Amino acid sequence: MKQKIFKYKLVYYLAVITSLLLFIISAFLVLEIFNDFSLLKTLFIGISLVINSFAFVNLVEKYDKAILFLNLSLFLSIMSLGYPLLLGFLNGYYIVGHFTFKFLIVLILSLLIVNLFKVKRYKGVNEIENIGKHED
pTM for this one? Predict the structure, then answer.
């Protein structure tokens, strides 16, 4: 029997596509290091690349920590996109029409959908281990 991570297959496909998209974006950000080098930028891109690759591999293989890595990946992406938008909004710029704002909304919605429809595992007593044992 296959292990289920989400209640619906559509949510699983959404998570895999989102994870693959974030991995591709972080892989292309490696090229951005060569334009203007910054230690903080290099560290951020390296961490993002590692977390996104772990999220994608764990989702495809359906490991237990897949949702954790996907949440970390989405949270990191939301923070990296939201911080400049927040600064722009505070300075009086109109940001609702920007592609970055729309992408940020899509990432927040996918984070909510992934966490809403994940399968909750019961960590209690395993029934198979109790077969044949008399419990009163």
Answer: 0.79
